[in-house]
C-alpha cells in the first residue's frame, strides 16, 4: 500500500517538476491536456451475478496528457489517469510496469514513453497503447494491448511496456517492429460483478480455477512486425505477431480443476482497405497458429464497409459502418474440454455483425446507433447502444445513452441479459 | 398550276435556306462554345500553374461562425509541396483546441483527378481513406468539404469562359466549371462560377451551386500577397455557406517558404504522428 502510494506520487511529482521547470516559458502549459469526465450509470434491472447490486453507479476520470519536445529529436508523452468509482472497482496506486492486477488502479500511468523522431526512423521505449488493423470494431490482429473489461460495454485498452521502431521505405511503405517483454493480461471479472463472465449458477467453479499466468522470462517475450504499403486507392498491411493471448481460455484438464490459460500463438494477418464510389471497404484475414495443440489453430476474417451520405430531408451527414467477423477451425483440438464455449473470448464474437449509424443532427450534436449482433444462434443476441452527444463548445461534451442487451442461452450475453442501463456523462477538455 | 409550282418551289427554297442557316448558326454556336471552353480551360490552367509553389508551410487560424451566433476557433498548420510532375501534396494538421488536436488530412494528387486522401483521427489512432463520394462531407465541422481541399481536377470538369466582370474593382474572367459525367456522382456541386483576376490570375471568388443550381457557398479572398514570381496567396479567406448561414474565416498567422519540404512529410507516418 505504501509502495503504491509512493509510486503514484512519483508520477504526479514528475509532472509538477516538469511544469515548474518549464513554467517560466509561456507555452509550457500548452503541452498539458486535461480531460475530466464524470458518468452516472443507471441499471434498469438487478443483475443476478452482482451480489452487491446498486442501481446507480458513478465514475469520475481525470486524464492528464503531457507531451514535450526534447532536444529537437525526442518526444515525451505522459498520460497518468486518475479514476474513482462508487463500485470500488478502482483502488490502489500504480503497480508494476505490467498491470496484472484484477482490480483497476485508481491512479495509473496509462501511457508513458520516450520517442526518438526523424522523418524516416522513429524509436520508442515505454508504456504505450497501439492500434492495428483497418476496421472500426473487429480487428483480429489488434492484440498488442490487453483490455479492461471492468465495464464490458466500454472496454479500454491497457498500456504495455514496449520498445520498437518504425522505419520508412520511400514515401509509400514502412516497417514497424515492436517488442513487448512482459505479458499483461486482460482484466476480466469471473464472479460477483455485474460484468462477470461466469453465470451465477457456475460461480462455484471459480473456486476450481487455477490461473496459469505466463512468467516474466525470455520465452514469453511478444513481438510484432508490420509491413505497410500505401498504393493508389489501396492500403495493405502484412502483420506477424508472436503473441500470448491476453484473454484466458478455460480448460478442464482434469476432473478436479479448471485452468485459466493464456494461449501462445503466432498470428499471420493481412489487412487492406480501398474505396469505390461512396464506400470505403476494409477487411482482414488472420491465421492463428497456436503453439499448443489443445487450443486448436484457427482463422478469423473480417469484412467491412464505411458508407457516407446525407439524409434526404435536412441534408445532414450520415455515416454507416458495417462489419462482419467470423472464424474457421483449421485444426481439430484434442484432449480439450472447454467449460463453456463462451469463455474463449477471442472467439466468442465470431459470426457477428457490427453496425453503427452516426448522424450529425446539428452543428453541435450527434446521434449514434450501434448494434453488435451475434449471428451464432437463431435467437436474438444483441447489444444495442443509442447515444446522443451534445458538444456546446470546444471544452465540453455531454453524452446521454442507453445500452440494451438481449442474451439467449448458451451465449456469453446470457448472463448480461439483465444488464440494461441508461447513462449520462459530462466531459471537459482543457 | 404554274403559280402552285412556283409557290412550292419558293417554299422549298425557304426551307432549304432555313435549314442551311440553322445548321450554320448551330455550327457557329458550337464553334463559339468550343472557343469559350478552350479559353476557359486555358485560363484555369494558367491560374493553376501560377498557384504552384515548390514548398509552403502555413500556420493559420480558422474561426467557425454558426447560424446561432456562436463561434469556434481552430488552429492549423498546412504543408504543401508540388512534385516535378506538378502534382500537389498537402498535409493539414489541427494544432488546437485539444478536442481536435492532431486530427490530420493527407492529400496526394493523382493522375486524372484520382487523388488519395486519408483522415487521421487521434481518438481511433487510425487513418481512414476518404472515398471519392464521401468527399462532399464537411472537414472537421468547417464549411470546407474534403472536395474543397483537394486540387482542381482539371480532367474531370469542363471550364467555360462566360464573360468579364469586376470584383472589388478588379476585372476578372468568369469561368463556369461543370463536372463531367465521370465526376458528377462524386461531387457535391452542380456547377461553380470562378472569378479569376485578369492581372494575376488569382481566383478571387468562387461561387458553388448545388445540384438544383441554387447558390450554396461563396469562397472569397482578401489581403493578397505575392510570395514569389507569379504566385499569389490570400491572407484572409472566407468560405460562406449561404443556405446554412454559416461561415469559416481563415486567417494566416504565419507563412514560411522553405526552399523545399521533405517528401517524407507527406506520408502515413507523418499523418499519424501526434504532437
Automatic annotation (TrEMBL), chain A:
Q: Does the keyword Signal apply?
A: yes
Provide this UniProt record's keywords sorted from A to Z.
Answer: Signal
- The protein depicted here goes by the name Porin
- The organism sits in which domain of life? Bacteria
Q: Which residues form the signal peptide?
A: 1-23
The scientific name of the source species is: candidate division KSB3 bacterium
From TrEMBL, chain B:
For this protein, the record's Pfam families field holds: LolA_like
Keywords per UniProt: Lipoprotein, Signal
Q: Uncharacterized protein TP-0789 domain location, by residue?
A: 86-273
The signal peptide stretch is 1-26
InterPro entries reported for this sequence: TP_0789-like
Q: Which Gene3D superfamilies match?
A: Lipoprotein localisation LolA/LolB/LppX
Signal among keywords = yes
Query: What name is this protein filed under?
Result: Outer membrane lipoprotein-sorting protein
Species this chain originates from:
candidate division KSB3 bacterium
Amino acid at each position: 500500500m505504501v509502495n503504491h502510494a509512493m509510486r503514484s506520487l512519483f508520477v504526479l511529482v514528475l509532472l509538477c517538476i516538469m511544469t515548474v521547470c518549464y513554467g517560466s516559458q509561456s507555452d509550457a502549459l500548452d503541452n498539458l491536456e486535461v480531460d475530466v469526465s464524470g458518468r452516472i450509470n443507471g441499471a434498469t434491472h438487478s443483475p443476478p451475478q452482482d451480489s452487491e447490486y446498486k442501481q446507480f453507479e458513478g465514475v469520475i476520470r481525470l486524464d492528464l496528457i503531457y507531451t514535450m519536445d526534447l532536444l529537437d529529436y525526442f518526444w515525451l508523452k505522459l498520460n497518468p489517469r486518475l479514476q474513482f468509482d462508487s463500485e470500488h472497482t478502482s483502488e490502489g496506486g500504480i503497480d508494476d510496469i505490467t498491470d496484472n492486477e484484477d482490480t483497476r488502479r485508481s491512479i495509473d500511468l496509462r501511457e508513458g514513453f520516450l520517442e526518438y523522431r526523424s522523418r524516416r526512423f522513429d524509436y520508442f521505449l515505454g508504456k504505450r497503447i497501439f492500434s492495428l488493423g483497418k476496421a472500426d470494431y473487429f480487428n483480429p490482429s489488434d492484440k498488442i494491448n490487453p483490455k479492461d473489461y471492468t465495464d464490458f460495454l466500454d472496454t479500454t485498452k491497457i498500456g504495455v511496456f514496449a520498445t520498437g521502431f518504425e522505419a520508412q521505405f520511400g514515401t509509400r511503405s514502412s516497417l514497424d517492429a515492436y517488442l513487448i517483454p512482459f505479458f499483461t493480461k486482460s482484466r476480466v471479472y469471473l464472479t460477483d460483478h455485474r460484468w462477470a463472465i461466469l453465470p451465477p449458477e457456475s460461480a462455484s467453479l471459480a473456486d476450481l480455477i487455477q490461473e496459469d499466468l505466463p512468467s516474466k522470462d525470455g520465452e514469453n517475450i511478444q513481438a510484432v512486425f508490420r509491413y505497410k504499403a500505401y498504393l493508389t486507392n489501396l492500403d495493405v498491411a502484412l502483420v506477424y505477431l508472436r503473441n500470448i493471448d491476453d484473454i484466458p481460455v478455460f480448460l478442464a484438464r482434469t476432473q478436479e480443476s479448471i485452468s485459466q490459460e493464456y494461449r501462445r500463438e503466432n498470428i499471420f494477418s493481412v489487412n487492406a482497405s480501398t474505396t469505390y464510389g461512396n464506400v470505403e471497404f476494409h477487411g482482414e484475414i488472420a491465421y492463428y497458429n497456436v503453439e499448443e495443440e489443445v487450443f486448436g489453430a484457427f482463422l478469423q476474417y473480417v469484412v467491412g464497409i464505411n458508407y457516407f451520405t446525407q439524409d434526404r430531408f435536412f441534408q445532414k451527414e450520415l455515416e454507416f459502418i458495417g462489419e462482419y467477423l467470423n472464424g474457421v477451425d483449421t485444426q481439430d483440438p484434442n484432449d480439450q474440454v472447454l467449460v463453456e464455449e463462451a469463455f474463449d473470448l477471442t472467439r466468442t464474437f465470431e459470426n457477428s455483425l457490427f453496425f453503427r449509424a452516426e448522424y450529425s443532427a446539428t452543428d453541435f450534436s450527434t446521434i449514434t446507433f450501434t448494434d453488435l449482433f451475434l449471428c451464432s444462434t437463431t435467437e436474438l443476441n444483441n447489444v444495442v447502444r443509442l447515444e446522443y452527444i451534445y458538444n456546446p463548445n470546444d471544452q465540453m461534451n455531454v453524452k446521454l445513452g442507453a445500452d440494451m442487451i438481449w442474451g439467449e442461452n448458451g451465449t456469453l450475453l446470457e448472463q448480461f441479459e439483465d444488464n440494461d442501463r441508461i447513462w449520462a456523462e459530462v466531459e471537459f477538455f482543457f | 398550276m404554274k403559280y402552285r409550282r412556283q409557290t412550292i418551289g419558293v417554299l422549298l427554297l425557304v426551307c432549304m435556306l432555313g435549314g442551311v442557316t440553322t445548321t450554320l448558326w448551330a455550327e457557329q454556336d458550337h464553334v463559339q462554345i468550343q472557343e469559350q471552353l478552350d479559353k476557359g480551360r486555358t485560363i484555369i490552367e494558367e491560374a493553376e500553374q501560377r498557384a504552384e509553389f515548390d514548398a509552403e508551410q502555413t500556420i493559420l487560424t480558422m474561426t467557425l461562425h454558426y447560424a446561432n451566433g456562436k463561434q469556434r476557433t481552430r488552429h492549423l498548420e498546412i504543408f504543401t509541396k508540388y512534385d516535378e510532375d506538378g502534382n500537389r501534396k498537402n498535409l493539414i494538421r489541427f494544432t488546437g483546441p485539444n478536442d481536435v488536436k492532431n486530427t490530420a488530412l493527407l492529400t496526394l494528387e493523382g493522375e486524372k483527378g484520382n487523388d488519395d486522401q486519408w483522415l487521421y483521427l487521434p481518438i481511433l489512432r487510425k487513418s481512414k481513406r476518404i472515398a471519392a463520394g464521401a468527399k462532399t462531407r464537411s472537414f472537421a465541422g468547417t464549411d470546407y468539404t474534403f472536395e474543397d481541399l483537394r486540387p482542381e481536377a482539371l480532367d474531370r470538369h469542363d471550364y467555360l469562359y462566360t464573360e468579364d466582370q469586376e470584383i472589388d474593382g478588379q476585372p476578372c474572367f468568369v469561368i463556369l466549371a461543370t463536372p463531367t459525367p465521370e465526376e458528377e456522382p462524386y461531387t457535391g456541386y452542380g456547377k461553380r462560377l470562378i472569378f479569376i483576376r485578369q492581372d494575376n490570375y488569382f481566383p478571387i471568388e468562387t461561387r458553388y451551386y448545388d445540384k438544383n443550381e441554387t447558390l450554396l457557398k461563396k469562397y472569397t479572398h482578401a489581403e493578397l500577397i505575392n510570395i514569389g514570381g507569379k504566385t499569389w496567396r490570400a491572407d484572409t479567406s472566407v468560405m460562406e455557406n449561404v443556405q446554412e448561414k454559416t461561415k469559416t474565416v481563415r486567417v494566416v498567422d504565419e507563412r514560411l517558404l522553405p526552399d523545399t519540404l521533405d517528401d517524407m512529410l507527406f506520408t502515413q507516418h507523418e499523418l499519424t504522428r501526434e504532437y
